[in-house]
Amino acid sequence: MTVTIDTFIKQSCLRNSDNAALRFKFQGVWTDMSYGSLWTLSDRIAAGLIKNGFQPADHAAIIAPSSPNWVATYLGILKAGGVVVPIDKELKQGELRHILADCDATIVFTEQAYLDVLLEVIDEIPAISHCVLLNEQTTAQSSEEIASTVSRLHEEFTLLCNDHKLSLPNGTTIEGLIARLQRLSGTLNPTKPSKKVRNPYDSIETLRERFITAGKLLNYTDFCHEAPLPCNPRKSEDTAVILYTSGTTGRSKGAMLSHDNIVSNIQTAVRHFNLTDAISTLSFLPINHVFEQVCGVLLPLSLGGTVTFCESLKKLGDNLAEVKPNFFLAVPAVYRLLLDRIMKSIGAKKLSTVLFNFSMTRPIVTAKIKQAFGSGTIFVSGGAALDPAIVLGMNRLGLMIYQGYGITETSPIISAEQPRLRLAGTVGKVMDGIQISIDSPNNDGVGEILVKGPNVMQGYYKNPTATAEVLHDGWYRTGDLGRVDHNAMLSICGRLKNLIVTPNGKNVYPEEVEQELLKSPYIAEVMVYGHSVGPAVEEVHAVIYPSQEAIEEYCVEVGKESCTDAELELLLRNEVQNVCKELADYKKVRKFTIRNEEFPKTTTRKIKRYIVEASISTR
Q: What pLDDT, on a 0 to 100 scale, did the predictor assign at position 183?
């Protein structure tokens, strides 16, 4: 029997029609979308696609934040026989243009906030026939609230003028601004022609008007259609999704994942973690990324669980306490932040500090933490290497965290720790049905990790050269260095391309050094790299972005308003020397430079090394 992603989710929707599938906060109140409503809405989207000429195997892109409409659109595209192209909403115009031109999408779903940038791009891509706004109802609601607020502002201003007997000339400028706000807030529907006088020099406004007139810019409600859906001709081996890689080393490539790639990985992960329909998740990672999309959304939906969308990263702590998910996905940077905040909260109270420092009384403190976050929650870390110190710190708090390993091209999970099989510093055992091989291992057993299984991608879209470089006889070359211990537990050592070879011929994995440096409270972000000192020989150097908060606290402690550049460099030099004491001499950082701004990063918080390396001298 052919199992596609949409038929896989269909069974869950039919079994759990009245249960909450998706939860989101609207005007401060958690609101549910049932499985039945999700399935019905995705039907209407599929019918709307077909009505607008969408054919089986056509491509449709989604550029928007996580929401119930995003998920319904994803399923609707698959129901119409299409291929989904989820795109990072934070991309700059150049990369967005590259992906939209490369992926051959004929329709784009987005939100009002991203429309201006998108219009400029898709105007240059004739293949895109329509652009659909996912949130026009929210836009109208907001506009009505703005109009109401502006009217109240005008009333209050008039009363103020009367009470203080202000003459009209003093108020004309403010009155003019209020009148302008009233005119602007009157434009409720961004997909209808504007009645205001158009500025001929505003290129975005001109583009919008042209798209509206041509019927290419549609709102969600008008786009959805009621009609019986034809039989979906797609098979499990057909391409379901094209996911463009984060691009830590250069321009993004589109990894083609089949229905079977994703469904098989979900089924294996469910068995690996022993998950049931009681699963409840809090989704906050970018939904365009494979980790969140497959493991954080599709997996719980396939079981009949509930996916709750986090309000924002700033509200993550509050939402965790409100929702109390029993399955939570995050990247190491988030767990580090979470651990730091909890420990700082404990350290701020003398009694809590004393109780926590003794193993006999520690449960008094950790009981409150577990009560806040929920008991028995499975915290899963992926997307990058997890520092064992974070695992230890979370464990001391009574929170169990499991490290997993996977990449976009493997749909995504390759291995993961399990509730009864954990070892800090490893990424657990390889999941059932997946094979790995360590290619050309060195004396320590470290070599490139190769992967084979039903989860391995079909290849890179329209890029046979790049595909041939990584796929050989069904084996995928990950580019990651790793080893397998005697208990069959996999450890990740670093990236093959990042490997540093020192003058004495020793190999240094930058990721290992970075983990040590990040233990300093004064180092917020760091990138370790090899500085060439001879043919195929390098020294260990680093670029450091200091923690502004920690530096400010240090200045207060020593009675200074701020640090000079020389004082900051000395402080960081002492920190680098102290943390490097735990490393072998050949791994120690020889020189470092200081950055004044955060590193450019991917959606999973990985540093875009190729951008940083281009701005520094590695020779």
A: 44
